[in-house]
């Protein structure tokens, strides 16, 4: 994150049509460009921010300033976030950095506006503590100022007090719903308690202000191809109404299983399936991946170990947190004894407890900070 320079104006204008996906056509594109003339990148740089990836590509921006007429007020003029990073905390990070700066300059309030009907913006701003200002009419039950930005340009106006900008106010209870998508290990096969690692993880989750709903969507025998094929149909209906929807993936052992004719899914196709699934899911949801565990078959375990490394590389390249579990479990007596005493592939309760102990700390960090690279 850094402050912009005048040369950044062209970069910002260049990504706006892509990020807004042609919203409102040519007229919308022109209106957005007119909202960010060069003067904002010349005279308001020290109160604005850009976020860049390691390769220099633009990830997000916030253009804001302290009012000269009302120095107790800070104004957020325009914000943009790459759609690949939506719902991953980047916008909130920018706003909170701006709150900190504005408060340090003596501001008591932050203000901004949005268009009527923009429900995502309304939810985002109210979630950050903004209050909707009284208007002269209502649209869809929300107070609106008619002709705020000119004839036929109504706006919803927001105000947020900056009494404690350094530490954000205690959050309201947050509804977080997580789909756990995977195979028999995700389903908890072999665990007489019926909890598996997903149930234990939910039980171990202690996060003040968080209401967790965990959907276990593990199916015994599923490969990466089958999981990729069903993820939208099974996950999106469960997560579409959630203020915070998340996705946890875990698969790979069945891919490396011989079915009498060869591997069920060759390694290169398994990696391609993961890459394709992440490409489809990341624009919509934060994703966490738990690597495949050992299953007691030496030949298959060798193949799973190699696949585990390839999965980790794919996740690193897409900024998806990856929790490797194979090496930590391979020589664990509780894991191996459970497999030997059970069906020859799945652990018992003690093994799932060990698996949960590996996952739980990274899981908690991901719940609090679902974006890894910011």
Can you describe this structure?
This protein has 374 residues and is an alpha/beta fold. The chain has two domains: 8-161, 3-Layer(aba) Sandwich (Aminopeptidase); 174-368, Rossmann fold, CATH 3.40.50. It has helices at residues 8-19, 25-35, 39-43, 90-104, 119-127, 184-187, 196-204, 224-239, 267-281, 298-317, 326-330, 333-341, 349-368, and strands at residues 49-52, 58-66, 73-81, 109-114, 131-132, 137-139, 142-144, 156-161, 174-182, 210-218, 244-250, 287-290, 322-323. The protein has a six-stranded mixed β-sheet with strand order 1-2-3-4-8-5. β1 and β2 (58-66) form a beta hairpin. The longest helix is centred in the last third of the chain and has 20 residues, at 298-317. The relative contact order is 0.09.
Main structural class = alpha/beta
For this structure, what is the CATH class of the largest domain? Alpha Beta
Which fold does the CATH topology of the largest domain refer to?
Rossmann fold
Low-confidence stretches: 165-170
Which bin fits the share of residues in helices?
A: 40-55%
Tell me what the CATH architecture of the largest domain is.
3-Layer(aba) Sandwich
Q: Strand arrangement, largest sheet? A: 1-2-3-4-8-5
Strand portion: 15-25%
What is the element string, with H for helices and E for strands?
HHHEEEHEHEEEEEHHEHEHEHEHHH
DSSP summary, beta strand count: 13
Biggest sheet layout: 6 strands, mixed
CATH superfamily annotation of the largest domain? SGNH hydrolase
DSSP summary: helix tally: 13
**Rg (C-alpha, Å):** 24 Å
- Could you tell me the mean pLDDT? 89
Multimerization state = single chain
Return the domain count. Answer: 2
């Amino acid at each position: 994150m850094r402050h912009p320079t005048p040369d950044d104006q062209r970069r910002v204008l260049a990504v706006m049509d892509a990020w807004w996906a042609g919203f409102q056509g040519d007229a919308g594109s022109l209106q957005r460009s007119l909202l960010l003339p060069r003067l904002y990148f010349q005279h308001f740089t020290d109160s604005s921010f850009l976020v860049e990836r390691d390769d220099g590509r633009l990830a997000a921006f916030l253009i804001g300033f302290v009012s000269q007429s009302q120095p107790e007020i800070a104004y957020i003029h325009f914000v943009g976030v790459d759609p690949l990073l939506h719902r991953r905390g980047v916008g909130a990070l920018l706003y909170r950095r701006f709150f900190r700066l504005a408060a340090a300059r003596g501001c008591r309030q932050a203000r901004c506006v949005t268009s009527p009907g923009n429900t995502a913006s309304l939810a985002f701003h109210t979630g950050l503590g903004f209050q909707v200002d009284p208007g002269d009419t209502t649209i869809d039950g929300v107070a609106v100022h008619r002709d705020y930005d000119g004839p036929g340009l109504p706006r919803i106006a927001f105000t947020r007090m900056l009494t404690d900008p350094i530490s954000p106010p205690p959050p309201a209870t947050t509804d977080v719903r997580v789909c756990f998508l995977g195979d028999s290990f995700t389903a908890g096969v072999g665990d007489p308690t019926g909890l598996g690692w997903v149930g234990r993880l939910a039980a171990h989750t202690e996060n003040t202000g968080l209401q967790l709903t965990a959907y276990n969507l593990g199916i015994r025998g599923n490969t990466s191809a089958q999981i990729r094929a069903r993820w939208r149909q099974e996950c999106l209906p469960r997560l579409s109404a959630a203020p915070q929807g998340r996705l946890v993936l875990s698969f790979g052992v069945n891919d490396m299983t011989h079915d009498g004719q060869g591997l069920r899914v060759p390694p290169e196709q398994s990696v391609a399936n993961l890459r394709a699934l992440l490409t489809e899911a990341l624009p919509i949801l934060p994703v966490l991946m738990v690597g495949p565990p050992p299953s007691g078959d030496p030949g298959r375990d060798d193949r799973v170990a190699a696949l585990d490394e390839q999965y980790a590389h794919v996740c690193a390249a897409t900024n998806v947190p990856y929790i490797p579990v194979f090496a930590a479990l391979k020589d664990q007596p509780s894991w191996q004894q459970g497999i030997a005493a059970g069906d020859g592939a799945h652990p018992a309760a003690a093994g799932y407890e060990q698996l949960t102990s590996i996952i739980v700390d990274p899981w908690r960090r991901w719940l609090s900070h679902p974006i890894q690279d910011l």
